[in-house]
Amino acid sequence: MAEAALQHRAEQLAARLPPLLVEAERVATTVAQGVHGRRRVGTGETFWQFRQYQPGDPVPRIDWRESAKSMRLYIRETEWEAAQSVWLWRDGSPSMDYASRPELPTKRARVDLLLLALAALLIRGGERVALLGTGVPPASGRAVLSRLALTLGRAAAPPDLPAFEPLPRHGQIVMLGDLLAPLDALQALVGRFAAAGLRGHLLQVLDPAEETLPFAGRVRFEGLEQEASLVISRVETVREEYMQKLARHREGLAAIARATGWSFGTHRTDRPPHTALLALYGTLAERRR
C-alpha cells in the first residue's frame, strides 16, 4: 500500500540520523524511562490539561468542578517535572501537488516523507507526537507512525495554514509547506502560538522552478487552486522581479520566526530529503544546548 511504502521510506530516512531529542523548555528531572526533559502525564503536582473521562479511569481523578461546566466528565492530568509533546503539520492544499519535472517529487510527497521521518526520529527519542488539527492527542510508540501515514494518505485538503488551537504550554510545533500564504496571516498564527507558550520551526519546501523561474518565451501558468490562468509572453523579462519578490517573502518568514523565538529553514525538492532533516536536527540540538 502507498501508506506502507511511505512509512518504510520515512523510517529509512530517519535511520540516517541519531535519535532526535526535542529541546525542552524546562529540564528538571530525568524520567524513569531515561528520556531527558519531557512532559508526560504522571505523578507530578503541576496541572497539565483536562481530558474527557474514559472507562477505567480512577474516579478520584475526575475534576468535578470542570465537569460541572458541561455534560461530560473530565480527568485532571498532571505532569512529570519536565517534558513536551510535538505537534506536526504539513500543508496539504492543492498547490502542494506541483512538480516541475517528472523525475521530481511533488511538494506534497516531500513534506509527507519529511513529516513521517521526523516523527520516527522523535518517537525513537521517546517523544510523543501528533498531527496538528486532527484532535488526536500526542502519543508515542511504533504504532503512531502507521496512524500518521494513514491519516496523511486520507486527509482532505487543508487550508494553506492550520487553524489556531489551544495546546499545552511548552510544547513544540513543526510546520512544513511552501509557506506562500500571506505573511500577515502567518504572523498572526505564529504569534498566537508563541504567546501561548509554544515554540516551533517553519520549514519552507519549494520546487526548484519556484525559486529560479527557469522558463523562457511565452508560457501559460495554470493555477492549482482555481486561480485564473496567466499568460506571460516573455517570462525572462519578469524573472528578476519574481525572484526579488520571493526573496522578500522568505525574509518575511525569517523575520516572523526571529520575532517569536521560532526557527526557519528552507528545502528544495531536487535535493536529498535528509539534508532538511539534518538542518532541523542541528537547529533543535543547538537550541537545546
Primary descriptors:
8 helices; elongated; two-stranded antiparallel sheet; 9 strands; single chain; 289 residues; alpha/beta; Rossmann fold; 2 domains; 36% helix; five-stranded parallel beta sheet
Concise account of the structure shown:
It contains eight helices and nine strands. It is of the alpha/beta class. Strand 7 (219-221) and strand 8 form a beta hairpin.
How would you summarize the topology of this molecule?
Layout: H1 2-14, E1 47-52, H2 64-67, E2 74-78, E3 86-90, H3 107-124, E4 129-131, H4 143-154, E5 172-177, H5 183-195, E6 199-206, H6 208-212, E7 219-221, E8 230-232, H7 239-260, E9 263-268, H8 273-288
Parallel strand pairs: 3-4, 3-5, 5-6, 6-9
Antiparallel strand pairs: 1-2, 7-8
Helix pairs in contact: 1-3, 1-4, 3-4, 3-8, 5-7
**What is the strand content?**
15-25%
Give helix and strand order, one letter per element, not per position.
HEHEEHEHEHEHEEHEH
Structural class: alpha/beta
CATH architectural category of the largest domain: 3-Layer(aba) Sandwich
- The largest sheet has its strands arranged as 4-3-5-6-9
Tell how many strands the DSSP assignment holds: 9
What is the CATH fold-level name of the largest domain? Rossmann fold
How far apart are the termini?
40 Å
Helix content bin: 25-40%
Tally of domains: 2
Mean pLDDT: 76
Question: Radius of gyration, Cα only, in angstroms?
Answer: 21 Å
Strand count, sense and barrel status of the largest sheet are: 5 strands, parallel
Q: What is the highest CATH level, the class of the largest domain?
A: Alpha Beta
Shape: elongated
Q: Enumerate the spans where pLDDT stays under 50 for 5 or more consecutive residues.
A: 16-45, 79-83
